[in-house]
Design goal:
The strands form two sheets. Strands 2, 4, 5, 6, 9, 10 and 11 form a seven-stranded mixed beta sheet that branches. The chain is built from no helices and eleven strands. 0% of the residues lie in helices and 50% in strands. 33% of the residues are buried.
C-alpha cells in the first residue's frame, strides 16, 4: 500500500522557518517524482516544488523561489521542504504527492498524502 505521510507543519511568525517532511512507503522511492503542493482556504491547490525521479532536478513556483528548498534522503525514503522567510501568504495545507511520471508542478500525481497545516502569522 502506498503511503505518504507529511509532518512538520505548525504555527510560525512571519520571517520564520519550518521544515516539512514527507515519509514515503509502498513503492520504489527512487523511481518516483515527489512534489509539494499547497492549498489555502478558498483557493485552488497549487504546486510549490518538486524533485525529479530521473535526475534529481528540482523546480519551484515563482512565489517560493529563493525561500524554499526541496531535498531528498533516499536512504530514508523521505523528501523535505525547508521553508525560510515565511510570509502570511504561505499559510495553507501542504501536501506531498508521488508519481512515476514527472509532472513537474502539475496536479496529475498519482498518490497524495493527507496534508499538514502551515500557518504564518503577521
Amino acid at each position: 500500500e502506498v503511503q505518504l505521510v507529511e509532518s512538520g507543519g505548525g504555527l510560525v511568525q512571519a520571517g520564520g522557518s519550518l521544515r516539512l517532511s514527507c515519509a514515503a512507503s509502498g513503492f520504489t522511492f527512487d523511481d518516483y517524482a515527489i512534489g509539494w503542493f499547497r492549498q489555502a482556504p478558498g483557493k485552488e491547490r497549487e504546486g510549490v516544488s518538486c524533485i525529479s525521479s530521473s535526475d534529481g532536478s528540482t523546480y519551484y513556483a515563482d512565489s517560493v523561489k529563493g525561500r524554499f528548498t526541496i531535498s531528498s534522503d533516499n536512504a530514508k525514503n523521505t523528501v523535505y521542504l525547508q521553508m525560510n522567510s515565511l510570509k502570511p501568504e504561505d499559510t495553507a495545507v501542504y501536501y506531498c504527492a508521488a508519481s512515476n511520471i514527472d509532472y513537474g508542478l502539475g496536479l496529475e500525481y498519482d498518490y497524495w498524502g493527507q496534508g499538514t497545516q502551515v500557518t504564518v502569522s503577521s
